[in-house]
């Protein structure tokens, strides 16, 4: 995180000391850097400048309306996977003609919303879905532009729980089944096939899987002589959660995409999420208790897996840093854990860590993507606050949920 640094012993995000928030805000809470969001988005635009793609931010990675609004003002569209995300994107000021609707199980109600709002594309993921869109469009006296999501059977070499492009994943239609369906699509008079879509997974750190996917798409488009307006290449670009990890070199991929776009003569759509928002946020938490175990010391935080699910869901690594540095060390290995009554409510193990005491504060880093958007009320815990920083100013973009309203809802 470029805007996260220590000034002396104290942690700053942009130009604000995190300690300033601790006086008036009860932990845990999320804080994001607006400058980092803007930098990441504009850097993505610059990388693919020659291709000039439509960049549809993956709203599932962080669906806070205020963050969507920041990106919308920069020119971003939205990739949504529910009716709720679609309506949030519109509320944030993102134009309907910059919204694509993905997902394997869209409901009739959600599809009606998408059709009535005249979004750019509904990316269908099955023959049955295409038929339903056609039937609804006929009832609503509309002709609807659709894309079709393909499953290219490409292994993204990522965590099995975030792989989406292999034959045994639920997403998209196989090449064989798409070829069979395309022969019958002319019978569906109220839909118009304008795009092919593909998304092979998330947190991908090399361009190999993307190269394979481009070859698959190029071959299929030529073979079927498809006349398309768009090819949606999805997202999945990884970030470096660990110091030794290297993020994907998008400059190399950009050249391949530009050549691909010129050959097939169509507009490219991307759906980045993590690469735009992942490294923009931290989760601030208090050390509630310190408990010595048989082989390690447990640092019990007031943040739980309901606030931040990724470590429990994927065994994901997120670096944990102190709000205030010191030179002393804990005697034993430490494990940061949360209060939720699950053994998976834990955030990381460190062999050596600086001295911590009860009521100290830490920050879990790189939580901008799939942090707040995966949070829940599990154990009847309120959703926590979210704060957006811009230089030396900040604003609340979600207040902490009121406990009494939660239990009475």
If you had to describe this structure to a student in words, what would you say it looks like?
- It is built from twelve helices and 21 strands.
- The strands form three sheets. Strands 4, 14, 15, 16, 17, 18, 19, 20 and 21 form a nine-stranded mixed β-sheet that branches.
- The chain folds into two domains: 4-32 and 278-408, Lyase, Ornithine Decarboxylase, Chain A, domain 1; 34-277, Alanine racemase (TIM Barrel, Alpha-Beta Barrel), CATH 3.20.20.
- Helix 3 (65-73) links the parallel strand 5 and strand 6 (77-80).
- It has 409 residues and is an alpha/beta fold.
- The longest helix has 17 residues, at 208-224.
Estimate the mean pLDDT confidence. 93
Question: CATH H level of the largest domain: which superfamily?
Answer: Alanine racemase
> Strand share of the residues?
15-25%
Task: Note the total helix count.
Answer: 12
Rg over CA atoms: 23 Å
pLDDT < 50 stretches = 161-166
The CATH class of the largest domain is identified as: Alpha Beta
**Broad shape:** elongated
First-residue to last-residue Cα separation: 38 Å
Largest sheet: 9 strands, mixed
At CATH level 3, the topology of the largest domain is: TIM Barrel
Number of domains: 2
CATH architecture assignment of the largest domain: Alpha-Beta Barrel
């Amino acid at each position: 995180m470029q805007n996260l640094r220590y000034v002396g012993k104290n942690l700053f995000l942009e130009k604000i000391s995190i300690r300033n928030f601790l006086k008036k805000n009860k932990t845990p809470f999320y804080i994001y850097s607006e400058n980092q969001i803007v930098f990441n988005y504009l850097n993505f635009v610059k990388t693919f400048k020659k291709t000039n793609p439509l960049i549809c931010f993956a709203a599932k990675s962080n669906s806070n309306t205020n963050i969507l609004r920041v990106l919308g003002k920069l020119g971003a569209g939205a990739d949504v996977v529910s009716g709720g995300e679609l309506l949030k994107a519109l509320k944030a000021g993102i134009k309907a003609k910059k919204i694509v609707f993905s997902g394997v199980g869209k409901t009739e109600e959600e599809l009606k919303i998408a059709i009535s709002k005249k979004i750019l594309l509904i990316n269908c993921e099955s023959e049955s879905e295409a038929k339903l869109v056609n039937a609804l469009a006929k009832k609503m006296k509309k002709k609807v532009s659709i894309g079709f999501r393909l499953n290219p059977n490409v292994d993204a070499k990522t965590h099995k729980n975030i792989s989406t492009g292999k034959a045994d994943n639920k997403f998209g239609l196989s090449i064989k089944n798409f070829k069979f369906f395309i022969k019958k699509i002319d019978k569906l008079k109220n839909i118009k096939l304008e795009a092919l879509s593909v998304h092979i997974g998330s947190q991908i750190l090399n361009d190999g899987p993307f190269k394979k996917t481009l070859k698959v798409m190029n071959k299929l488009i030529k073979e079927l002589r498809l006349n398309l307006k768009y090819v949606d290449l999805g997202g999945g670009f990884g970030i470096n959660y660990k110091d030794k990890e290297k993020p994907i070199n998008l400059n190399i991929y950009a050249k391949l995409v530009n050549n691909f776009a010129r050959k097939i003569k169509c507009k490219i759509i991307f759906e980045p999420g993590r690469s735009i928002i992942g490294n923009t946020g931290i989760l601030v938490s208090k050390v509630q208790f310190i408990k010595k175990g048989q082989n390690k010391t447990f640092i019990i935080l007031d943040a739980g897996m309901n606030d931040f699910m990724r470590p429990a869901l994927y065994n994901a690594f997120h670096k944990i840093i102190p709000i205030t540095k010191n030179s002393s060390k804990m005697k034993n290995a430490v494990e940061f854990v949360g209060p939720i009554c699950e053994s998976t409510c834990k955030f990381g193990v460190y062999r050596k860590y600086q001295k911590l005491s009860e009521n100290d504060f830490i920050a879990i880093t790189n939580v901008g993507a799939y942090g707040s958007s995966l949070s829940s009320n599990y154990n009847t815990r309120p959703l926590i606050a979210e704060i957006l920083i811009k230089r030396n100013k900040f604003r609340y973009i979600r207040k902490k949920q009121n406990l009494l309203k939660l239990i009475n809802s």
